[in-house]
Structures are given as C-alpha cells and as structure tokens.
Amino acid sequence: MNSEASSPTAVIVGLGYVGLTLGVALAQRGCRVIGLEKREDVVDLTNAGKPHFSETGLDRAMSKVVENGNFIACTALDPALEAGYYVITVGTPLIAGSTKPRIDMIEQASRQVADHMRDGASVTLRSTVKLGTARDVVRPILAESGKSFHLAMCPERTLEGAALKELAELPQIVSGETAEAADKAAALFGLLTPAVVRVSDLETAEMIKLIDNTSRDVRFAFANEVARACDAVGIDAGEVIRSGKFEYPRTDVALPGLVGGPCLEKDPHILMASLAETGTALEITRACRLVNERQPEETVNAIVARLVERGKGPFRVAIAGMAFKGRPETDDLRGSMSLKVIDALQARDEIGSIVTYDGVVAREDIDALGLDIEVADDLVSACDGAHALIIANNHPEYSDLDIDSCVDAMNDGGFIYDYWAHLVKRPPATLEGRYFVVGNNRGRF
C-alpha cells in the first residue's frame, strides 16, 4: 500500500478552533499533522500538548498525539517537508463595521500553500466562505505557482464543545474541482468517519454550510418574533410554544433567546453577500438576521423599564454567562450576545455598573475585552448588591441556580431575567414577580 495513503502527511493552515480539533482528530487516526499558525503563543502551547481554548476531551487527546509525534505546530513550514495534503481552516470574520466577509486570511493561507506544496498536492478549503471562494480566490493563487494540484471543498460542521465526538460521527461533505480531487479529499476525510457525502461541485459544498447555519438563524428568529408578539398582548410565549407542539408533529417552534456565536452572527451575511452579486435579495434571511440582531437592545429596554418600575437608579446589573453558549460548554467569546447585551446596558443612563460571571471563561479573557465591567468569582457574589441578574447563556449551571440565594443577595426588588428559560418548570410560587423570561415580561407562571 502507498505510504501516503496509509499514513498521510497533512498540513493544517490555521490552528483556531476548526484547525486544531481537525488536526488532533486526524493525528489520532495515524496522520502526521503539521499545524501552521502565525501566533507564536498558540504554537508553543500546541507543541506542549495544551489547547488554547476549552473543548471537551481535547486536552487528553492532544497531549497524546503531540507526545507520540503525530502532531507538531510551527510558524513557518520546513521547505524540505513533503506533504500530500493541505487543509485551509483560517477564520472568515466580517469586515469590522460591515456585513461583508473578509477574504484576506484565505488569500494569505492560499499563498502559503502555493509556496510550499509539491506537484500533485491535495488542497482542501474547510473555512466557511462566500460562494465561489474556492474556485475564484484559492484556485488562481495556487495556479500562479505553476504546480499541479487537486482542489477540494469540505466545510466544517462541528459543534463547539463536542468537536472530537462529531468529527467521528458527522458525515463529511466533500467536493472536488475534478473527480480525482474529490477522491483525494475523500480519502483524507474518510479517515474521520465512514460517512462521506460527495456533492457535485465546489459551490454546492460551500452553499451547504451557509444554508445549514442560516436555516437555524431563521428558525430562532421566528421564535423571537413569537416572543415579541406574546409580550405585546401579555401572553407567555413559552407556554404557547411548548403547549402547541406537545405531541403535535407538524409544529416545531424553537424557544426564544439570544442568537449569536461565531457562525450564526456572520454566515447569513456571507450567504446574502454571495447572492447580492447575482442581483438576488434574500428577504427572509435579511429580516430574520435583523430580528436576532436587535433583540439585545429590545430586551434590555424591557429590563430597564422593569428596573425603573421598582426603584430609582443608577442600577447595578449582574450578567451570568459570557461565552456565546454554555451547552456544550465553551470559553469562546466570539459572537457572544452577552457583549451586545452589555453594550445595550451601557448605552442607558439608568445603568450605573455591570458585574459579570462565567465559570468557564477565564477572568483574564474577560478583562482583555477592555470593557468597563467587574468580574465575580461566583454567581451569588455577582448578585451581591445587584438590582437584576441577567442569565445570558445556556450553561447547565444556571439550571441549578438557587433563586433564593441570588435574590436575597440583591437589592430589594431584585429580579432575574433569563434569556434561556432555565427555571420555568419550577413551582410558580418560587418564580412569580422575581423571574422573567423572553416572551413573558409579566413574570406570570
């Protein structure tokens, strides 16, 4: 058997969340993996077998593949290294202050690959990109090298907090510029899972990732629209949604809440930018993104109105959950809607101070945000002297919250506003008047 087929060498360009977890998963399956990363601190941590972010099971898996030599990281590739595979996993954030996706990191990564690859190398784009990026951006840069190559697209689809598990279970979407390119990419990604779904062209593979995430954004936006409607007429949105779909298979409305994260806040915009060049406007996608983007300000307005009803400011507000989500838990602050909530609070003259708590995100990472906020070591301490506690992500810790301890630590009239409805199944007597959720601003249970 060809040694490259049985034990391939793969260069992963970019050791962020996508690249590092993919590299470790491939190294676990016998690949020799070289991670190319410009951040020296990340390279040092990687070569010490330590991940630079929180991810279930990654510490142990990473230490093993680094120790056995299957995974190394570097800031520059050894010219003598021969690799059969290159996988581009760099981030694709939106341009600051706009809804247009950046491509400069894709361009830079493509040039690094073009400079190093040998004839016949397999190059796979895994980043979430605007339609046509593989063909119109990556391909020309690789072609300028004068070398032959096999270009493929295999979009990342994993859930933060469950990446290693999902890399072993989820089908891998694969497409190549040619049949041979698709075969080569399928051989590599088939090491992760036996379920490889081949699609007809590069653009189809790019589109699948955008559609998957945009469909979730649309679904959550409708839930938030339901919440707005129910708030307007004094009905509990949670009761409407839960009761309406109980043993009724044709309705599956999500519960309302904050909608963000590193994918959902940008992928619908990337999809819209992809279609704008064709003159096609995606009205539903645009409207749903608007609903989700304005929700922090709308809900903060409701929170401040309730604070003013109960007393005189300036008010102190505690926020629990700074990571963009809590289930599965992560320390990722990218796309965190808690930051949008903080922005909305700080824009209000009635708010005097904000204290935050997150049991997963390190204090120094919150401090590094440069916001005028305090950081508490535990939830009850965060509530001390506060007028309101806002639960902003869905970490399981908040489902076990002791309402009495939190409210007792607050100022008189203090209350909890929960974006994730962690406690709605508790006895109504423990919730009335001091616990509110999105779509139930009256606090009646």
From TrEMBL:
Residue ranges of domain UDP-glucose/GDP-mannose dehydrogenase C-terminal in the record: 318-425
Record InterPro entries: 6-PGluconate_DH-like_C_sf, NAD(P)-bd_dom_sf, UDP-Glc/GDP-Man, UDP-Glc/GDP-Man_DH_C, UDP-Glc/GDP-Man_DH_C_sf, UDP-Glc/GDP-Man_DH_dimer, UDP-Glc/GDP-Man_DH_N, UDP_ManNAc/GlcNAc_DH
Keywords from the UniProt entry: NAD, Oxidoreductase
Example of a GO biological process term: polysaccharide biosynthetic process
Gene Ontology molecular function: NAD binding; oxidoreductase activity, acting on the CH-CH group of donors, NAD or NADP as acceptor; oxidoreductase activity, acting on the CH-OH group of donors, NAD or NADP as acceptor
Coiled-coil boundaries: none
UniProt keyword annotation of NAD present: yes
Residue intervals passing through the bilayer: none
UniProt similarity note: Belongs to the UDP-glucose/GDP-mannose dehydrogenase family.
Protein name (database record): Nucleotide sugar dehydrogenase
The species this protein was found in: Aurantiacibacter aquimixticola
Lineage: Bacteria, Pseudomonadati, Pseudomonadota, Alphaproteobacteria, Sphingomonadales
